[in-house]
């Protein structure tokens, strides 16, 4: 019997468009206690240093990822990151809860890092909630290291600032 962990998802990583925003904001609202608004995503879409990509589930699927009627591709995750003067900053990565632990976050993170490598960044930074142990483990799997703690960064919680030097990338066995 297959479990959701061993059935590979057929996804494409594509540039985010305004048409994706309702699905993106829905994932954002479910995922975070202080979510970005639709206007914030619109601002990022027009920001020249910002890069936004979505993971879209392909094929005949319903919202659970199971077979269904032919339907429009659905957004199941996204990444927002900046490239500024040789530095990268991961602003936001999220995956819809029903698609977590299936490699979507890893695909988005790896894509983001590779995009930044091609843009010749020399360092990548991110902030993550100190209690988000799954995300911290994922980032460490890719070679990110703790830099310092930003107190009350999220208002209700501290952020752990992490750093990756692209010259010391670590790509774990991802199984896809």
From TrEMBL:
SUPFAM superfamilies (UniProt xref): Acyl-CoA N-acyltransferases (Nat)
Residues covered by the N-acetyltransferase domain: 11-167
Recorded GO MF terms: N-acetyltransferase activity
Pfam entry (one): Acetyltransf_1
Keywords from the named record: Acyltransferase, Cytoplasm, Transferase
Broad enzyme group: transferase
Record flagged with keyword Membrane: no
EC number(s) on file: 2.3.1.128
Keyword Electron transport part of the UniProt annotation: no
Homology family: Belongs to the acetyltransferase family. RimI subfamily.
NCBIfam families: rimI (TIGR01575)
Name the UniProt record assigns to this protein: Ribosomal-protein-S18p-alanine acetyltransferase
Naturally occurring in which organism (per UniProt): hydrothermal vent metagenome
């Amino acid at each position: 019997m297959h479990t959701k962990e061993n059935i590979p998802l057929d996804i494409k990583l594509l540039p985010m468009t305004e048409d994706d925003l309702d699905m993106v904001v829905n994932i954002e609202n479910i995922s975070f206690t202080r979510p970005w608004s639709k206007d914030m995503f619109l601002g990022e879409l027009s920001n020249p240093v910002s890069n936004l990509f979505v993971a879209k589930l392909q094929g005949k699927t319903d919202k659970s990822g199971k077979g269904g009627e032919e339907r429009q591709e659905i957004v199941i995750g996204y990444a927002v990151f900046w490239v500024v003067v040789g530095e990268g900053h991961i602003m936001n990565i999220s995956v819809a809860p029903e698609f977590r632990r299936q490699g979507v976050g890893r695909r988005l993170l790896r894509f983001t890092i590779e995009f930044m490598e091609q843009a010749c960044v020399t360092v990548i930074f991110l902030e993550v909630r100190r209690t988000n142990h799954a995300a911290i483990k994922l980032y460490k799997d890719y070679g990110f290291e703790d830099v310092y703690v930003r107190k009350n960064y999220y208002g209700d919680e501290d952020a752990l600032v992490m750093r990756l030097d692209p010259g010391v990338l670590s790509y774990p066995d991802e199984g896809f």
